[in-house]
Amino acid sequence: LRESLAQAEAAVRSDPSDGQSWYVLGNAHVSLFFAGGQSPGSARRALAAYAQAERVDAAAAANPDLHLNRATLLQYLERFQAALEGLSRAAELAPGWDEPRKRHGNLLEFLSRLCSLLANRGKLRGKRRRGLAGPVPLPLLGPLGGAGGPRPSPIAALRPGP
């Protein structure tokens, strides 16, 4: 992946107005994001590369794969509105391609179920819901609950740091 990334960066440096090179660079960063521990930096660089591809090249902006790949990353980052817009755009650009429409429908269904669960508080009632609202028992924290490990704190007491 690192070699592919280096090649894509070299292609962008040699011709910054080539939207295809920017698209490939975005794909390389997406691959690195998913294979390399979901680094927020890789996600930001992928989104920036896709945006640059659209800015510098009308043909790249009309590439349905670009919109589908970006939407996949946005969905993973929980930026659902932008993901839905990207899937819609990919479907517009490739009317015969079912994948964007299928993913759009799946995402809408997921969001609908999520909203329903939130509205119904996860379908939990009274005593069970109150039990979940309390502190997490230390044995359930596994190694975090052992002697010398971090202790649960109220949200208001949390501060930046380890």
From TrEMBL:
Listed InterPro entries: TPR-like_helical_dom_sf
SUPFAM superfamilies: TPR-like
Gene3D superfamilies in UniProt: Tetratricopeptide repeat domain
Ranges for region Disordered: 142-162
Domain of life of the native organism: Eukaryota
Protein's name according to its UniProt entry: TTC5 protein
Lineage: Eukaryota, Metazoa, Chordata, Craniata, Vertebrata
